[in-house]
Write a structure and sequence with these properties.
heterodimer, A: about 325 residues, mainly alpha, 9 helices, B: about 525 residues, alpha+beta, six-stranded antiparallel sheet, 10 helices, 25 strands, about 30% helix
């Protein structure tokens, strides 16, 4: 079984195309965000009288002749954000196609080395964002989601790039499809959750200090909402990470004869699990909610990055599949 | 803990209540089982696990530990004293996770008791002031209070709430599975720990090298290395046998990944005991063989040159497929031959190269892992092999302390470089060495772990419990109906509802909206709608 070189090259071009598209989308989202502060202020001004009205209305039964129609706030035309969304959609299509074509070219799940893990994982990040956009307007988050995607892809094509090839025998297992795919899906969710946690910490700080200074942060949701959204993503990502750990142990039992052997990659997967378990516990511990818990989430993501970028490449162990030379 | 100040000028120390021995124990137990301590121990566990990924570990790779001692003679003994090469068996690591589990048990057992009680009893009574709840709604409807309560009861019942009626009030609770899942998750972790411990005490693992055509019998002496738990009787291992019939290997032939392994496959004949019915099967990476309660894994492979040593008269002194251990991705392999039958013991130190390449003035190297141009380089020694010293010796190492290198007529040390089929004469009339052919060998790891099924079951239970504890909403809903007289004098009912959740729950308002929508007939007047 050999690699179809033509298809592998096509996959690379598709990925370059998606990166170009992400880049323009990123610029669009960023421009939109820059204009967001002014927009947020206009909306605040326009809706102030409306709030008063509502307060009056609550005093007694509503009269039919009362001017109930709210003053019209012209829906801001967010051209840059529109461009961002369209180009993100295009980029995601190209990105997913690139991953799929690489899989066809190599006749195996396209996540057998670090390059492939990074490209497939970042595709999930973008997919989750696009899917969420369908029912909630999260365009203001575009910069903070597409930015990391671009970073990951940039790292993938420059440092981690590995030519399409076959797998070593230990990776030839149905568990590659299960264990590794859940690992990068969960990593992708942790990535978005990380982005939201950082934004939460910034927003929380601004709210606490009562910052009057106008900033693009005004366009973003309030700290409480950012915190809840990040928690929900963590709450989905954590069981998936648990599954990664268990599926990995089952595979290790099958391939190496032991389900747990304190291989460096196993150690770090465990460390990540423990740190995020700490995050979930902290949210339920008095005195640890809010900022302190968020710090633990940041530490958890730091461990994920360390596990991916440092352990894979520099630590010798059973999991040395990086393919980076 | 005397509160009498020695110096009257100092302020009197605050009068602390005496704890007494029981009180102290209770105090320590409370601290240990508090969430804050659990959180601290979790973080400590994460930090403590890290050194084991940086430093070489005896349990993972003892060779690397030895190498570390050689390269860091100053620091290595200190790291060793602190348990740095056995992190996961060290006192401090064990102390952290054992304390964590004690804390877990101390937290989970009382909660289990409480939860069992809660599951048998009615939901708690409705609070007096609903507007203090996280979600709260109030509407006025035409139906009578009794009708409203009956309807609310039906709606809540259909949404799997457990409902308690208290005169004009209802209190309802759902999502007991959330707590059940949480408790199952934590208890399953305890189960996992016990399963791992059982595997450690009752399991064993052996590594053995078997050349193609050879047989392996599962006895403790047949292994190159055997690790058995303290409760294992190594003289009573299951008596199965394995014949290695074939070993097929494949390497990437060209391209940038040339030489990478692609496929290893061992064909074996196994018997549960000597003389029992035999069965042919294939052992591959990721496809172990189950035999007689043990699993056989194919973890390595290499070359075993068949070497024959004869004395000057042509009598065979040694003839065997001799496994050489590979040192790199191109299977540059090292091995030794120990010949004891002769008057002077002979030792051969060898280097086997499956695809040999020569460069000027250097040692020959292997450039491809498969047999394209095999060569065997041997350095002969004579003297005392040291086998009678009583010290156990590795079959892969030659102890040359009491041996000398053989020298040729020119006075230079002899070095034999042979291709398959070659025979070379040893100097001093010692005889000859023949490199007959090359066999492959398989490195098998045989493992018996009685705990693994329980570990898997615990892990699955933990995952199910985790899912329930994170995704089942635990909610309480309260309803109060009180009759009022409307402006036109007809009797009406004010319905107050409130909801409360355990943990983060953004669905409370929707829950109340659904309930109210079901209670409201077509015509209604809104008194007040108070979102959370």
């Amino acid at each position: 079984m050999s690699v179809n070189e033509n298809l592998a090259t096509t996959a690379n071009y598709l990925l370059y195309g998606s990166m170009a598209s992400y880049t323009v989308a990123f610029l669009g989202f960023t421009l939109d965000l820059a204009g967001g502060a002014a927009r947020a202020e206009r909306v605040a001004l326009a809706s102030a009288p409306q709030r008063e009205l509502a307060a009056v209305g609550a005093q007694g039964p509503l009269r039919d002749d009362a001017p109930t129609a709210p003053p019209v706030v012209p829906p801001a035309r967010r051209k840059a954000a529109g461009i961002g969304v369209s180009l993100t959609l295009l980029a995601v299509l190209l990105h997913v196609a690139a991953v799929a074509v690489r899989g066809v070219a190599t006749q195996r799940p396209p996540w057998g080395n670090m390059y492939e893990f990074a490209t497939a994982g970042s595709a999930v990040v973008a997919l989750v964002f696009v899917a969420t956009l369908r029912w909630r307007d999260l365009r203001y988050l575009g910069t903070f989601v597409i930015g990391p995607v671009l970073l990951m892809l940039g790292l993938a094509v420059t440092v981690l790039y590995t030519r399409a090839g076959q797998l070593v025998p230990s990776l030839k297992s149905v568990w590659l499809a299960i264990h590794v795919s859940v690992a990068f899906i969960s990593s992708a969710l942790f990535t978005i959750a990380f982005s939201l946690t950082v934004l939460y910490l910034v927003q929380e700080r601004r709210e606490r200090s009562g910052a009057a200074k106008r900033s693009f942060m005004d366009a973003l949701p309030r700290a409480r909402e950012l915190d809840l959204a990040s928690y929900r993503l963590h709450a989905v990502a954590f069981p998936l990470w648990t599954f990664t750990l268990v599926a990995g142990a089952i595979w290790a039992e099958n391939a190496w004869g032991r389900y747990w052997g304190w291989d460096p990659k196993e150690v770090w997967t465990f460390v990540i699990w423990v740190v995020y378990a700490g995050y979930l516990h902290a949210r339920a511990t008095r005195g640890w909610q809010g900022r302190k818990a968020a710090t633990l989430a940041l530490a958890g993501y730091g461990c994920i990055l360390f596990n991916f970028l440092v352990v894979n490449i520099f630590f010798v162990g059973f999991h040395s599949y990086a393919g980076v030379s | 803990m005397s509160a009498t100040p020695a110096d009257p000028s100092t302020e009197p120390a605050p009068q602390l209540p005496r704890l007494g021995p029981v009180g102290t124990v209770r105090f320590v137990w409370r601290q240990l089982t508090s969430m804050r301590t659990a959180l601290f121990l979790l973080m400590l566990l994460a930090v403590a696990a890290v050194p084991g990924s940086v430093l070489p570990q005896r349990g993972v790779n003892p060779g690397q530990v030895t190498a570390y001692f050689q390269t860091h003679p100053g620091t290595a003994p200190w790291i060793d004293r602190l348990g740095g090469f056995d992190v996961y068996a060290s006192v401090w690591f064990s102390a952290i996770y054992l304390l964590l589990f004690v804390s877990l048990v101390g937290c989970v057992l009382p909660r289990t008791r409480q939860h069992l009680r809660a599951m048998r009893s009615q939901p708690p009574a409705a609070p007096r002031r609903f507007e203090r709840m996280p979600a709260h709604r109030e509407v006025e409807v035409d139906a009578s209070p009794d009708e409203v309560l009956r309807a609310a009861r039906a709606v809540l019942g259909s949404r799997r709430y457990r409902v308690r009626a208290d005169g004009s009030e209802l209190s309802a609770e759902r999502g007991y599975l959330r707590e059940t899942g949480n408790l199952v998750f934590h208890l399953a972790l305890l189960g996992l720990l016990l399963a791992v411990a059982a595997g450690h005490l009752l399991g064993w693992r052996g590594d053995v090298v078997v050349a193609v055509g050879d047989q392996f019998s599962n006895t403790s002496v047949a292994y190159n290395s055997l690790n058995a738990g303290p409760w294992v009787d190594v003289s009573a291992l299951p008596p199965f046998q394995l014949d290695l019939d074939r070993l097929d290997v494949a390497f990437e032939q060209r391209g940038p990944q040339q030489g990478q392994p692609r496929d290893f496959r061992a064909t074996v004949t196994s018997r549960a005991a000597p003389g029992a019915a035999s069965q042919r099967s294939v052992v591959e990476v990721n496809h172990p063989l189950q035999v007689d309660g043990a699993s056989v894994f194919l973890l390595g492979n290499g070359y075993a040159p068949v070497i024959t040593v004869r004395d000057a008269k042509g009598t065979e002194l040694y003839s065997a497929a001799t496994p050489f251990l590979n040192q790199d991705g191109n299977y540059t392999s090292v091995g030794v031959v120990k010949v004891v039958g002769a008057a002077r013991q002979i030792g051969l130190q060898g280097l086997f190269l499956p695809t040999v390449a020569f460069s000027d003035g250097r040692l020959p190297v292997s450039v491809f892992p498969d047999l394209k141009n095999p060569a065997l380089a041997l350095t002969p020694f004579v003297g005392d092999l040291g086998l009678s010293s009583g010290q156990p010796q590795s079959v892969f190492v030659l102890d040359t302390a009491k041996m000398q290198r053989l020298q040729g007529r020119d006075g230079k040390p002899v070095r034999l470089l042979m291709a398959p089929g070659d025979t070379a004469q040893l100097p001093d009339g010692l005889g000859s060495v023949t490199f007959d052919r090359v066999e492959r060998y398989a490195g098998f790891s045989v493992r018996h772990d009685p705990g693994r099924v329980w570990a898997l079951a615990s892990a699955i239970a933990a995952m199910v419990g985790l899912g329930l504890s994170l995704f089942v909403p635990r909610r309480r809903v309260f309803v109060r109906a009180r009759p009022v007289e409307s402006r036109d004098g007809s009797p009406r009912t004010v319905v107050e509802t409130a909801a409360l959740a355990r943990g983060e729950d953004t669905g409370l308002d929707d829950e109340l909206d659904r309930l109210i929508a079901a209670l409201r007939p077509q015509r209604h007047t809104t008194l007040e709608e108070a979102p959370a």
